[in-house]
């Protein structure tokens, strides 16, 4: 990858991160002038190189939905590969020749055609003879160039994939159990074949090229020997801006060692893979080998030979989730598989348990599917007496068995189950609420699933479960100590933080501060406030007042609040009658020199009666920006509206 191409990718990542933070999270991670400078640099590089990616911020393309996907025949049939599980067979296949050993990615194969430097057409593999045209969707793939420097006709093949982390994030957002995707490949296939490209754009699809099919242009422009070497083809495609499938150059003597290296790498590999592909590097020689009715003879696929171990089933854990599904997890005597110690495996659903005829103490065989995901292969003793959980571990409600199309799952029907309210607990521990570091949504799901947490106060009693927490997968003594330390640090807090943390509908950080200030940080006054009293507060209308009184009058909520108050202590907060910034609205942008961060300056302004907004409008009193002369969008807006732009020092001189 040349320096300009690498810089383009860096700039796209930086600018997209900054834009997401600004537009979705109402926070700035870089000054506007810096964003504008990087944007201009990106534009110049794209013009110089002719390389433009689909996710570049310079591309503002709308989405045009299709009524149906048009089918189209491939110019040459797309054949499958012959397979082996024996590394020695790979050495025999190569003989004394050089080969390219790469990942066999588990996604959807796509054929891309470029004409005059622009992406002209994208077609799925389909049945190998006829595929579906998905050009509009391919234009939304994160790493596919819309434009390249080569102006001849170019045809390439690649694998469209969705990374594990993106798959998990997308699946978490789907609440309907039947709508969840089974694996990244299914999600990728559905994403690529959408009629609405806007959906594809949200799925983080990426493409890795594994074959150059043809390049019909001036070969003198190509500084690589693409007529004779597949490795040279890969290098050329990389120079054009494509991501090629990760590969290793091997010989018959080194291919077995390379397979072992891949076996170690797959443990942390972020892209779904179900094996390897060995391709002859010598293109003319590979063509001379011809093909069978089903397979080309210039390449062969290697499938992992599963390492199987025998062990004893110790117990089945029942793990409730935010969807209401209670997942069965097999816990067995630890065994070594593919270089790691394994002691747990998902059993997925009740039908699989019934099919395996499981019972505690059974002798089972386990393996890692594709060398990654632990699975139970076979039950050798088949006691067939395992009892399903009768109650939900998180809330104690009676469980129900759901049967859909012959697949049985275990569900918790309780709408108030803590496991279904992970987001509520996540908001409680967030920075602007109780500010408890080290407790992620994933950690909360585990703690709630084990019955450690059922209400807010339980977070302050986690020290009662030390032995269980330190023995859990992914935790240890240090992790436990960090969590407890953060929990204890949050015990001394403010009225506004607690009010924000309770999850009262409509009450976020700003309203919590407003209400706390009105009641002089007296929490008891807030929880006992009447509807009429609340609506006298500026910006608190009838809907919010009803939400607050309704929350605190609920008997269950009263207990939750009482239990929480028994675990925390309110800090003494200065209450000043001086409202010197009352009626003023400030916007803060850029880096600060005298305040720890923008939140610190914001807090000071609000204590003095002022307001802080994220964007400049006609209601803005002052824009605080240390770079007064920048051409950032906020500076431009402020100047056009006649709003004063002041530096941090000028603010301190005028208002402190």
Write the layout of secondary structure elements.
Layout lengths: L2 H23 L6 H18 L2 E2 L17 E3 L9 E2 L2 H8 L4 E7 L2 E8 L2 E7 L5 E3 L2 H4 L6 E3 L5 E9 L2 H9 L11 H9 L4 H5 L4 E11 L13 H11 L6 E4 L4 H11 L7 E8 L2 H6 L10 E4 L6 E12 L4 E13 L2 E7 L3 H7 L6 E7 L3 E7 L20 E5 L2 E5 L10 H8 L11 H9 L16 H5 L6 H13 L2 E2 L1 H7 L7 H10 L4 H5 L3 H4 L7 H12 L1 H11 L3 E2 L14 E4 L9 H10 L3 E3 L8 E3 L8 H9 L3 E2 L1 H8 L1
Parallel strand pairs: 3-13, 21-22, 23-24, 23-25, 25-26
Antiparallel strand pairs: 1-8, 2-7, 4-11, 4-12, 5-6, 5-9, 9-10, 12-13, 14-15, 14-17, 15-16, 15-20, 17-18, 19-20
Helix pairs in contact: 1-2, 16-17
Walk me through the structure.
Helix 1 packs antiparallel against helix 2 and helix 16 packs across helix 17 (509-518). The two termini are 53 Å apart. The longest helix is centred in the N-terminal third of the chain and has 23 residues, at 3-25. The model is unreliable at 61-65 (pLDDT under 50). The protein is α+β, with helices and mostly antiparallel strands. A hairpin with a 3-residue loop joins strand 17 (363-369) and strand 18 (373-379). 34% of the residues lie in helices and 22% in strands. It folds into six domains: 1-53, Helix hairpin bin (Helix Hairpins, Orthogonal Bundle), CATH 1.10.287; 61-302, DNA ligase/mRNA capping enzyme (D-amino Acid Aminotransferase, Chain A, domain 1), CATH 3.30.470; 309-411, OB fold (Dihydrolipoamide Acetyltransferase, E2P); 418-490, DNA polymerase, domain 1 (Orthogonal Bundle); 493-570, DNA polymerase, domain 1 (Orthogonal Bundle), CATH 1.10.150; 585-655, BRCT domain (Rossmann fold, 3-Layer(aba) Sandwich), CATH 3.40.50. It has 24 helices and 26 strands. The strands form seven sheets. Strands 14, 15, 16, 17, 18, 19 and 20 form a seven-stranded antiparallel β-sheet that branches. Strands 3-13-12-4-11 form a five-stranded mixed β-sheet. Strands 6-5-9-10 form a four-stranded antiparallel β-sheet.
